[in-house]
Amino acid sequence: MSAEAFGKHLPAVVTLDDLAAMNAADQYGHRYELSPEGALSVMPPPDSEHAAIASRLLVWLALAGWPADQVLQAVGVRIAGPDGIGGQIPDLTVWAKAQPRTVWLAVTDLLLVVEIVSPGSAAMDEVIKAREYARAGIPRYWMVERDVAQTVTLHTLGPSGTYDVAAKMPLAWLLQTSPADHLPEL
Question: Under a CB-based contact definition with an 8 Å cutoff, are residues 19 and 32 in contact?
Answer without folding.
Answer: yes
